[in-house]
Design brief:
Helix content: 10-25%
Mean pLDDT: 78
Strand order of the largest sheet: 1-4-5-8
Radius of gyration: 40 Å
Low-confidence stretches: none
Oligomer: single chain
């Protein structure tokens, strides 16, 4: 038996005092903090005194507002207390709502949104987590937002205006100040053709020099109505560009279109008869 104990002692290395202290703090610190908070709260209650003669606490409230009490939230740590980049951990969380003190199960998650859904009965609950903004009922509450391992307590005053808290479709034009949306806030290719009204872009000042390249013009986009009379000059017509029979309709070239002396003998078939 003695040899077995000696063998085990060699396998299991004793923990240092510092390691034991760190483990106790990691696992029990939030419990001690919660006990201290509730002890201080109990002293303030002073049994037998009416509410008017003592400090009111969240548990005294019976209204349709959520109150968070006695909790800790730790960045970059998972639910078991292991350092985990990107995760958050919550402990000893209580939510007081409509006069009921709900005890929330300890937890942690790598997901972004963590919210309270009021249970149909009882006074215990577990936060629901997701990577998409939740659709909340009037009795529910978005509690934490995980920003890559750093927790934001969305339920507290002052955090409700964060972009991650605002519900989809909640920001209308009246909520945006003039000139609030700048060029840096618009994604590349963020404004498609269907977002531009007909004739919306019509000033020369709206185009930089040579900004419209040939690749930006659709096939057949430039029609005769888009060209001013005389807009296409001789200098804009390439050499030999007008040389195809299908460019002329029958009878389009009459005597008025031919300059005097324009048809030289070399342009005539020498075997043809010319009568005049």
């Amino acid at each position: 038996m003695g040899r077995f104990k000696t063998f085990l002692s060699r396998l299991v290395q004793p923990l240092s005092e510092e390691q034991i202290r760190a483990a106790v703090i990691r696992e029990a610190d939030h419990i001690l903090a919660d006990v201290e908070w509730r002890f201080a709260q109990a002293r303030q209650l002073e049994a037998g005194l009416p509410i008017g003669a003592r400090q009111a606490t969240a548990e005294d409230m019976n209204n349709l507002r959520h109150y968070l009490t006695g909790y800790t939230v730790t960045n970059n740590m998972n639910t078991s207390g292991t350092v985990t980049p990107g995760s958050i951990r919550w402990q000893a969380l209580h939510i007081v709502y409509a006069g009921v003190d709900y005890t929330i199960a300890d937890g942690g998650s790598l997901l972004k949104y963590h919210y309270f859904v009021k249970p149909a009965s009882g006074n215990t609950a577990t936060l629901t987590s997701s990577d998409t903004k939740p659709t909340l009922g009037q009795d529910d509450l978005l509690v934490f937002i995980n920003n890559g391992g750093v927790a934001t307590v969305a339920a507290t005053d002052g955090a409700a205006s964060l972009p991650g808290v605002v519900a989809d479709g909640a920001v209308d034009t009246g909520a945006l100040a003039d000139n609030a949306v700048t060029g840096t806030k618009v994604a590349n290719s963020g404004i498609g053709a269907n977002k531009l009204a007909t004739g919306a872009i019509n000033l020369a000042a709206q185009f930089g020099s040579k900004v419209v390249a040939t690749a930006a013009i659709a096939d057949n986009a430039v029609q005769s109505l888009q060209l001013n009379a005389g807009a296409v000059t001789a200098g804009k017509i390439g050499s030999g560009a007008v040389n195809n029979a299908n460019l002329f309709t029958a009878g389009v070239v009459d005597s008025n279109a031919v300059a005097a002396g324009a048809v030289s003998p070399t342009k005539l078939n020498i075997l043809s008869h010319t009568l005049y």
